Structure formats: structure tokens, C-alpha cells
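input
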Amino acid sequence: VEVKIEVVIPEKERSKEEMSPNGKASPLIYKVNGTARHYHLEEHPIASNPYHNPKDIVEASVCHVKDLENGQMREVDLGCGKALLIKENGEFHAVGHKCPHYGAPLVKGVLSKGRVRCPWHGACFNIGTGDIEDFPSLDSLPRFQVKIEKEKVYIRASKQALQTQRRTKMMAKCISLSNYNLSSTNVLIIGAGAAGLVCAETLRQEGFSDRIVMCTMDRHLPYDRPKLRKWLFLQSMDSHPEQIALRSKEFFCTYDIEVLTEMQVAAVDIKSKIAVFKDGFKMEYNKLLIATGNTPKALSCKGKEMENVFNIRTPEDANRVVKLATSKNVVIVGASFLGMEVAAYLAERAHSVSVVELEEVPFKKFFGERVGRAVMKMFESNRVKFYMQTEVSELREQEGKLKEVVLKSGKVLRADVCVVGVGAVPATSFLKQSGINMDSKGFIVVNKMMQTNIPGVFAAGDAVTFPLALRNNKKVNVPHWQMAHMHGRIAALNMLAHGTEISTVPYLWTAMFGKSIRYAGHGEGFDDVVIQGDLDELKFVAFYTKSDEVVAVASMNYDPIVSKVAEVLAAGRTIRKRDVDTFVFLSFRTGDMSWLTGKGS
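output
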């Protein structure tokens, strides 16, 4: 028996790729000298389908058909690139071997029920189509056709697909942009983060060919905020926002997604369906998505406005902090994810790094005291000093610049730079008089379809509370990058009346000193933590339980256990506290995923 893998694009999709219904690149709209202006990028002709070129095709024998059992994956080398060969339910499938998000090896991920989940950040891909089933990846996997002949496995694939390891799903374009008035659009998206971008892309992927306008207070097109926060792009002093852009300018032009930068919405008139901008410009809409995210909290003490005190919000903020902090004294207020990631990054660059936090240990409410102490110990071994159970009472200056941070405990810390990471509030104050329903904290309340109480108005991302299926539809706020992507997709599908409800499992990660903590679920209100592994060695998995049920999991150096738990929860199954030991043994040590089918003991 032989297995052959060949890249195939259906004729229908080929015609989509090779034809442009618009014929013109759409304008990007930028704010220049206070005025919104159109700029057209040069139109780049779409290249002929690469699979039509015989020189682009490679074929190689990789294994015997019996080498793979059901439920197994194998990374196979074709000489000029690799593919992921999968066998499930007696059928072979082949897709790209790297997650398009950050390049994780999917062979180390989790295979279950027709999809593979990334071991690093939880993105999921359909093994039959390569399509995204969960985020944070924006691109799908290339899919290769599998054929069985004789007793060898051959893979026939495009060199280009093997090298890029990603596929952008076919998208529609705006049929006739010239027919629109500048001050009206079919879909208006307020906010250009992950939720807004995925909403726009999903609309195009679903064939929506009307006008889409995104607006943002930022100077930049949508960028990868976790990279900003996790400092992955700050490897040189001349880093630029383009290095962390989620999509290129050409992408927005090609698919007629217009972007208004440095444009702030001041009010929304839901009766007239008009968004009013801060500069007086008005835009009429048919469907509206509010995805404004949050705003960092500022300190309330004396001296909070002085120079060298930062909230990390933009690439410019991040670059400036790095430049000013090198070989200087840094004080970080708040042992939040932001604060701790900044502390880890600056530990080797600054003269000193101090963290001030009101709680007894970092991450106590999120990861629990034992995990928090283990993380704290790791930081202390890397020269980071902690001042816990205290707050900042005053920031002192010398010649207009920060000199000292005074704590309520009476301690005075030398400081050339202060980074504030004490939480955030939803950026929704402009909606107070709109009639859109918000809770007491300012979060927009939406249903499972991301709809607000106003017909045609949707909301997504960090600024919303929504029913979480995992926690019996409790209304929660989940400010995670992965969740914002899914919110945007669900909102887009329901703008098109698909009636799709959100059911994804929250997934997040944080990186510090070259080590990652991965987390899945929603552990708010957990009452116990069951830990497997060794906290002192920073190799552990922590199960967060409420009553007898596991509601979340975190791990360090224990991949892919978090992705396995995420798959169990996504399948609607429950892990009981008493079963944690068995689960870890079966799913991690033996690779048994029968928990997903209800066959596990």
C-alpha cells in the first residue's frame, strides 16, 4: 500500500484567487495633519497558481502505511520542507507541520476528533481542510491530498507551501468601493485589535462584499500586542512597529478593508446609526462592532504625571522604556502579567529592577499562592527585588525627572524609570449615553452571539462580558488574546445571521526568563489547587478546582498537558479532582486521549 500527499486547490477556489471582482486596490485611510485622507497602494497582480508549475512540485517516499497507528502524527521530511502526516479513524491526512502563529511543532500538539491543537498557544486546525478552528493563529495550514498506493507513503507537495507553512483563506473583495460616500459604511468596526481584525477578515472569508471600515486611536495598523507585552520584538534598539504587524498594508488594500488611524470615536447615536468622532467627523453604519479593548489604570499618588513614568500601551512606549531603563534603576508597580514580563525582560538590562505589589505573592488570585511563590523565587534568583503588601505613596523628581519612589511602608526606592501595571478598565466611557447595556464596571454586556441589547450592534474583546459555556454560561470578562480573536469571528458570523454561539475554551500564556506558563480554562473563584510535578524545579502542572470540578489548568515545562486539558473541556467533558492523578498518567505519560470520547477510566 502506498500513501501519496499532493497539494490540491479546488477549481472554485482557484477561480476566486485568480479573479478580482473589484479590479482596484481599495484605499487605506490615514489621518494626516488632522484630516482623513485616502491613499492607494500599487496593485500587485496575483501570481498564477503555484501548483500549476511542475518545477514547484516535490515528491518523496517517507514511510510505510503501517508505520502509523490510528491517532498518531508524524513529521515527515521531503528534502525541501516538512509535512505533518496524520492517521485518524483509519484515514490519512496531511497538513503543514508548523503552527502559523509562532511556529510551534504541531507533532508535539494534541490530536483529537479531527483537529490538531498547538502545544504552545492552543490554536486549533482541522486536519481535513487545514482551516482554523480556534485561535490565535490568523492563517490556516496548507492541506495536502493523501493517496494510498502499494506499501509505501509518498508525499507530493508544492515547495512553496512546504516553505511557508501557512495558507490565507480565500476572501471576497468590495464589489464597487467608488459607489460609497466617505461618511457611510455597511460595517463599522471601532477598534483595530485582534477582535476587530478577525471580524473584518471573517466577513470577507464568508463572501461579504460590501464596505468595511475599521477605526483606531493607534498610529499603526493592527499589531501583535502579546509580542509588544512579552518583549519578543525588542531585540534591537531600532525595532519598528511593522515588525509586529498582524497584516501588511498590502493585505488591507487587497481585501478592501479600510483603516482610519488616529481616529477616536466620541459618541454613538444608535437611533440614527451614526458614530461621531472626536474631530467632528461623522460616519453612518448599518452594522457596528465595538472592540475598543481597555485603558491602563494610572497611579493616584503625587507625581504620577512626571516624566519617565510609563503605561506600556504602544510600540513607542515599549521602545522608550527599554532605551531609558538600560543600566538604570527601574521600579515596576504591580505584579501583573505586564509588570512581571517587563521585570523579566529588564532584569538583564537594567542596573536594578524592583517590583511593588499589594498582594503577598505575584499572581496569587490567578495561579494561587504556591505557584505564585515559585514564580517569585525564580525572579529573585534573577536579581529582581520584591516589595510586597505595600503601595506607592509618592513619586519624587529631580529637575523634572523621576528620582525616587516612596512606598507607604516608608521605604524609598531609587528610580530612573517607573512602569505602571496595576490593571486596566474597559475603554467604553464614550458609550455611557448611548443606550448600549453596560455593567457597573463599564463592560459591555453581550450574549453568546456577541450581540448587545441593540439590534445590529455587536461587541467583542477585552471590553465585554459574555456567557462562558465552560462555567455554565456565567457572564465573565476574559481579556485574553485568543479569546478576542474568537469574539471577532463570532460577531462577524452573526452579522451575517449565521446564528453561531461562542463555546471556546480560554487559553493564555506568559513568558519570563525563557520559560512559559500556559493556562487554559477559567479559574475565577477556585477553591483548591492540585499540583503534579516539582514547583522548585519549575516543572509542574496545576489543576484549579471549584468544589469537585477542574475549571482551569496551568503548567510550566509540562507540554502539551494544557492543550490536552483544553481539548477535554472543549469536548464538554469534566475532569474531577479525584481523577487528576489518573488523567495526568493516562494523557501525559501514555498519550491516551480516550477521555475525549468518554472511554477513559
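quick obs: The chain has four domains: 54-164, 170-297+423-505, 309-422, 514-597.
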